[in-house]
Amino acid sequence: MLNVFVSKHPILQQKISELRRASNTPRQVRELTDTIGRLLMYEATLTLPLAPTTLEQSPVGSYEGQKIAVRQALIPILRSGLSLLNAASDLLHDAEIRHLGLFREESTLQPVEYYNKLPRQCNVDECIVLDPMIATGGTAEAAIEILQGWGVPKIKFVAVCVSRKGIEMLAKKFPDVEFYVAVVDEVLDKRGFVVPGIGDCGDRLNNTA
To answer: What residues does the Phosphoribosyltransferase domain cover (predicted)?
Structure first.
């Protein structure tokens, strides 16, 4: 899976271990997810191109300014994708924020789209999709297909915990999409839950279990 980047950062791996803990409060889940998101976003933005701006002045001399050379949009998948948005927008503060509402229907495990406010014409060079969990991969697949249909040239996907089955399916189907993940778990049970996973992320984040 040449387009899947699994972080080996020791701090991130420790945070994943802490996030898995069932006794966490919603506040702890939110804080841990945010920290993990910041570490993943660092890796997802390592190859962004730069462009020179104007001549600037430091306290001791002049220098040529630089800025990110591509127009970006952050795409949190409602609702749990919002937990990664602060981390992403703090780094990419000039990026547009566009939301997609998708949920997994419990009986069929198929994605259902309920919110989409993308402009009629694509106006960015790159989208970074934010969703903490990839289980079967159906929701991620639907989001990527929506963005490809919109016409965005480049898509990156940032996820905290993924199943091997789900990420392998996505990596094969979308070879031009880059996936940045913190951990790949081997087991996907009959209910479509990743094991050991991080549980129902939306419920844990919002205290709605």
So the answer is: 6-208
Q: For residue 81, what are its two tokens?
A: 């994708």
- 97-147: pLDDT as tens digits: 999 998 777 666 677 888 898 999 999 999 999 999 999 999 999 999 999
Q: How many CB atoms lie within 10 A of CB 83?
A: 26
Question: Do you find a cis peptide bond into 196, omega within 30 degrees of 0?
Answer: yes
Buried b (16+ CB within 10 A) or exposed e, 179-193: bbbbbbbeebeeeeb
**CA–CA separation, 59 and 75 (whole Å):** 38
Q: Cα separation of 138 and 197, whole Å?
A: 17
**pLDDT at residue 54 greater than cutoff 80:** yes
Q: With beta carbons less than 8 A apart as the criterion, state whether 139 and 131 touch.
A: yes
Look up residue 103 and give its two tokens: 């949920």
Write the class of the CATH domain 4-206.
Answer: alpha beta
How far apart (Å, rounded) are the C-alpha atoms in residues 39 and 46? 11
Q: Which of 141, 148, 147, 142 shows the shortest CA–CA distance to 165?
A: 141
d(CA 29, CA 206): 9
